[in-house]
Design brief:
- This protein is mainly α.
- The chain contains 4 helices and no strands.
- The longest helix is centred in the first third of the chain and has 40 residues, at 3-42.
- The chain is flat.
- It starts with a helix and ends in a 12-residue tail after the last helix.
Length: 115
């Protein structure tokens, strides 16, 4: 047998075992934290292990994405930072005015406002 194939045959079962262990520990942690806090604070029902795994998977989908690390928010922030650097001070002030009108706030400009 080739050395690379032999090493893969050794590592693959360990990787699968590690993933199963990680999933089990994550489900147990979520279940115990939920059952410790939420029923007493909000009178919510207790969870089973499988429900805790479902919540863990759902939170990963909603808040962690699907594991695509090359795109998304970080790419958006990088592009916006580059765009901001290319703006003139007048364009930046116009953008700030738009933010004020839309959301009622703007990033700090270093100027103090009179009350």
């Amino acid at each position: 047998m080739r050395p690379r194939l032999k090493r893969l045959m050794f590592i693959a079962p360990l990787a699968i075992l590690g993933m199963l262990l990680f999933i089990t520990i994550g489900g147990e942690v979520v279940m115990h934290l939920w059952n410790w806090l939420l029923p007493s604070l909000f009178s919510w029902p207790q969870l089973t292990f499988w429900q805790a795994l479902g919540i863990l998977a759902l939170s990963r989908i909603l808040f962690g994405g699907f594991g695509f690390h090359g795109c998304g928010r970080s790419d958006y922030r990088r592009r916006m930072a580059e765009r901001w650097e290319r703006m003139t001070p007048e364009e930046r002030e116009r953008l700030r005015q738009g933010w004020r009108g839309r959301w009622g706030f703007c990033p700090p400009t270093g100027e103090s406002k009179a009350p």
